[in-house]
Amino acid sequence: MLRHFTQTRSIHSTRTLFNLKAAIADAIPKRREELLRIKKNFSDVKVGDITVGSVLTGMRGNQSMYWESTTLDPNEGIRFHGRTIADCQKMLPGAPEDNGDGEFLPESMLWLLMTGEIPTEEQSRQLTQELAERGAKLPSHTEKLLTSLPRDMHPMTQLAIALASMNKESIFAKKYEEGSIGKKDYWEYIYEDVLNLIAVLPRITGKIYSSLVNDGEPLGHFNVEKDWSYNIASLLGMTVRDSVNVHSLTKERSNDFVNLIRLYCGIHVDHEGGNVSAHTTHLVGSALSDPYLSYSSGIMGLAGPLHGLAAQEVVRFLVEMENDVDSVENVKQVEDYLWKVLNSNRVIPGYGHAVLRKPDPRFDAMLNFTEARPQEFKSNAKVQLMKNLSKIAPRVLQKHGKTKNPYPNVDSASGILFHHYGIDQLLFITVIFGCSRAMGPLSQLVWDRILGIPIERPKSLDLSSIKKLCKI
Ligand code: CMX
């Protein structure tokens, strides 16, 4: 179902601050004081025991990172400052032109991540406008660099390179080099970089996509009056106004695509701190590398097939499976295909999770998007296969007996929905994930500097230390 609109107001703040930076500044004294008090009085409280098993299995269950905005419950899924996806769909403001019928704006989510508060309509609009103003121009050196990259370079590599190149624009790096700022002020410059980085992502994304499909010629233009997701859609050539409308979408289908981007980007922003892209951004940022370098590193992690690239792999998988089976309704043939993959010691992309132990609520949200538009999706065999698979694959994976979570994760559905509307460049799909994921880890980076979280430096163990601990 589409979003049920609820008029909201800031739940903690008694006064309304329309500017995000001012709202963050307002929240700082209380948060700093709280954390300082906890550090001073409770530093000896035990969080848990780290086992040799945890050391040897990618630090599973090792609770050792502070993360402000999101927590992941193995059974319930993600919460954004305590709110579920369904809460966010009810409470976060959407685009004014949707009159309460569309998805919430990722900008509204960004406000929630950064402040812990549900933004009012006005606050959300203000942030949309601020991002549009900041994102109107891509630095010319980054634009030239992107133009010069080989067309067949993976789009995620192009995204990482573009972001790293913007380190030249970093206000934080400049101020730090000048020696003109003290620790307490770092966050203000990190914030400026973070907002500038998020703002320019639609442009980078559009540029990478146009290189892939249109010889680098723009497919649309950036409209400063419109929201961040709309501009992503336009620059992909998917809107009726502001773009060449590559697939001749009707107004309604184009609006649906814009809302798909809003939904997708709104719920992919963060998945607490331990996932590879978020953790990498936080780790690199802890060395005071600026947000461009930090998030460029996060993107390189997101580009791994066990993480974000699974979205691309799922589409490839569905395309291949559809060709292999007589009918996507043929359960026996689908099962046989899955066994063939498992028996050749490969993973089924889009299934399993390091933390979740139930179906991913983000997957359900993407599925709901299709259920709300039955006519749109009913004749797409790949979308039907994706849905059938979500019932068949858990049974097969359970029988296989290795995977701790046999259920679909978010990557199961997302790519194939973009593909449905015409984004058929498989390698490109994860770039849209990269747009969304910026919001969570980079909000954390702002708070890391506000709270003075130090450089991250866990202790490693060599084999002889482990043997000694095990008394071997
Ligand atoms: N298909 C086949 N085997 C799988 C599997 C899957 N989808 N998921 C896990 N397994 C296997 C693991 O490879 C592991 O095998 P070994 O013991 O031989 O090493 C075993 O089951 C146990 O793994 P686990 O503890 O259940 O899962 P992990 O925490 O190690 O890994 C994840 C989690 C996501 C990497 C894994 O489930 C996977 O590879 N899934 C497929 C790729 C994917 O969809 N990734 C996207 C995740 C979401 C995201 O980050 O975007």
TrEMBL record:
Highest rank taxon of the organism: Eukaryota
GO molecular function, one term: 2-methylcitrate synthase activity
InterPro entries, sorted: Citrate_synth-like_lrg_a-sub, Citrate_synth-like_sm_a-sub, Citrate_synthase, Citrate_synthase_AS, Citrate_synthase_sf
The UniProt record lists the keyword Transit peptide: yes
Record localization: Mitochondrion
Keyword annotations of the record: Mitochondrion, Transferase, Transit peptide
GO cellular component: mitochondrial matrix
GO BP: carbohydrate metabolic process; tricarboxylic acid cycle
PANTHER family, A to Z: CITRATE SYNTHASE (PTHR11739), CITRATE SYNTHASE 3, MITOCHONDRIAL (PTHR11739:SF15)
Family label: Belongs to the citrate synthase family.
Record protein name field: Citrate synthase
